[in-house]
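Students often ask what a holo structure prediction actually looks like on paper. The answer is less mysterious than it sounds. You provide the chain, you provide the ligand, and the output is a string of discrete structure tokens encoding the 3D arrangement of the protein together with alpha-D-tagatopyranose.
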Amino acid sequence: MTKRLFNLLVIISLLAIAAPVAIAAPPTQDGGQDYVVVKDDWLSKLADKYLGNVLAYNAIMELTNQKAATDNSYAEISNPDLIEVGWKIYIPSADEAQEFIAAGAPSEAPAAAGKYKIGFLAGVQDPFYFTMERGARQAAADLGVEVVVQIPDNWNATVQTPILDAMVARGDLDFLFLAPVDKEAMVAPLQKAQDAGVPLLTVDTFIGDGDYANGPVTFPLSYIGSDNVEGGRIGCTALAEAIGGQGKVYIQNVKPGISTTDQREEGCKAALESYPDITLIGVDYNDDDPAKAQAQTQAVLQREPDLGGIFGTNVYSAQGAGQGVINAGLSGEVKVVAFDATEFAIEKLRDETVDLVIAQKPFDMGYFAVLMGNAYLDGVTSIPKRIPTGYQVITRDNVDDPGVARFIYTK
Ligand code: T6T
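The corresponding structure tokens follow.
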């Protein structure tokens, strides 16, 4: 090994320690390169970046597995949608990848093939969508179809759109269901997917006004999700009652433009109209960041020491609001209604930081989405344009009832 190559390797390993950015090692004797997976990586993105072809993701997977068979420093990739930070994988040279694709991917045929391949693109990594994924996988197992799941790291149309494009570009998905993260910004990307010949429906959130029968946007086959106006109404009626029908309340929300949380805010405000002695002192938007929600809540509690209650419109809004109340030493005094039944929310319900938890039914949403996709591909033409999935309201009185606890979301 020449002195120059040795120095180069030393510099590279020092860099690897210093800055955990993606460092592709120099080409190996096979022309390809070893690569250590970093945050926000997924195989089709790496295939696009290093081989200029998203479809080469399978070559990366298979050739990495071939190397792993004799060298356990390489990761074993069982599901192309699931790679982990820190995994060493092998990115073949363009020739190697071309050769591999031309030879036809051995793994495609036997193992993974289901009757149909249905794609699921969630909104963000959170217990609500993990539970939805469980419902989808249950339906897939029951129906003998395959689901391909992508869950973005953060809630943003600029993050979700390229993932959607990559899922469509795979060319092997027969159907797609997704939670569009913005009701306007995601219209065009979904239209593009539809025009590329991938039939789709939306779960949890909608585009346009959600009326896919008569609204401004009608091409999605169905909208499967909660009645979120009703959810907001349930939440803030309970909050109003919890503070005795008088005083100040505050809403912790995500960001405008999200169909679900916009409607929860709308439903909350509508409910408060029936309580003339209650004042809504304001709404804050936390970008789906619990730390931001917590800081905003603490600032409001400073400004409004006589605040009576808070409505947290989703997982991270309620989590931040609850933590803010705890940090202010007002647990149990300031009433909190939490939307979404995470284990954190249930824990806070038990220690009286939170007074009521509204559980959606994400498992059912995922299950119905695969069911409808399979039915559509089997030729069913009357897929309902709207499938509402209801709620379970959880209190300290019913939280231990198994018929209720089953609605607590998966981690
Ligand atoms: O509340 C759910 C979902 O319904 C909403 O659209 C976005 O936030 C959650 O995923 C929870 O974080």
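Residues 14-29, 105-112 have pLDDT under 50 and may be disordered.
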